[in-house]
Amino acid sequence: MWPFICQFIEKLFRETIEPAVRGANNHLSTFSFTKIDIGHQPLRINGVKVYTENVDKRQIILDLQISFVGNCEIDLEIKRYFCRAGVKSIQIHGTMRVILEPLIGDMPLIGALSLFFLRKPLLEINWTGLTNLLDVPGLNGLSDTIILDIISNYLVLPNRITVPLVSEVQIAQLRFPIPKGVLRIHFIEAQDLEGKDTYLKGIVKGKSDPYGIIRVGNQIFQSKVIKENLNPKWNEVYEALVYEHPGQELEIELFDEDPDKDDFLGSLMIDLIEVEKERLLDEWFTLDEVSKGKLHLKLEWLTLMPTADNLDKVLTSIRADKDQANDGLSSALLILYLDSARNLPVSSILVDTLLS
């Protein structure tokens, strides 16, 4: 299948990624791929998990542990600035979810195929000419790490690739599904964190300036920094849309802010199936990958209702908690699907480029 997968990837680069890059920044309006060769080494599937519980009977859900290490040749240019760069090798490791839905009574039995990563995969890119790219006006604030994050997040839920296998399938409903629920995260406090700041060349242990990074899919939140405190109190609230479960997790990492490189203070991963079952979790969690430290979280699972019958009750409840979040707590969810546009004006940047 690999040669045909490569054809699909090239089409994805040219028809989806290239227009997205052009539209992201005025300085990239002449961005294009001049060569796309993914190489002959196929990706490996190291494990497959099939879900049999909490699954709609008209769908099949697979989680694939994938690993790709390959030499490739991808060349790109920005004609406006006579700038060229490329990629000569890529590594990617992560959990890719494959959803086969809807199941139908005629061949090929499956109406469509959806692909996405549940969380940001490990991605490494060996660039050629990256400094040329970063010299383009408007891009000098970017870095290799930021570019990798942008690419990784493009592959992560709620972003997805949906391929229809029969003509009558409702592709928009599969590509932009309604969320399964909303996770309200009360990021409260921590205790007994490691002191990373040192004095007198490490002889005297000091405190830390802790903050947290919270991820659900490609939704990322960062807490405020609490200066010189090993028992910080944040008392912040975040709300994240949950599109897929089982399999999706809440990921939290704590760091000590430093002028050069921030130190790691521990991590935590919580399966959202457990939160949905309990509806409300208010617990102290022991931090992983460190010798000590605990994190106090309150997690609420909120189900989407098709009518506004309970809206007054919800509004009363969130008014009582109005000080918990900087921009307020949500009472409802607006889903907007942008279908198409017509008779748009011609871009002046494109005209300038054509004339030049």
Automatic annotation (TrEMBL):
Membrane topology annotation: Peripheral membrane protein; Multi-pass membrane protein
Entry GO CC: endoplasmic reticulum membrane; plasma membrane
Keywords: Calcium, Cell membrane, Endoplasmic reticulum, Lipid transport, Lipid-binding, Membrane, Metal-binding, Repeat, Transmembrane, Transmembrane helix, Transport
GO biological process terms, semicolon-separated: endoplasmic reticulum-plasma membrane tethering; lipid transport
Ranges of residues in domain C2: 165-285
Transmembrane regions listed in the UniProt entry: none
Database matches in InterPro entries: C2_dom, C2_domain_sf, Ext_Synaptotagmin_C2A, Extended_Synaptotagmin, SMP_LBD, Synaptotagmin_SMP
PANTHER family: EXTENDED SYNAPTOTAGMIN-2 (PTHR45761:SF2), EXTENDED SYNAPTOTAGMIN-LIKE PROTEIN 2, ISOFORM C (PTHR45761)
Family as reported in the entry's similarity comment: Belongs to the extended synaptotagmin family.
Name of the protein described by the UniProt record: ESYT2 protein
Originating species: Cisticola juncidis
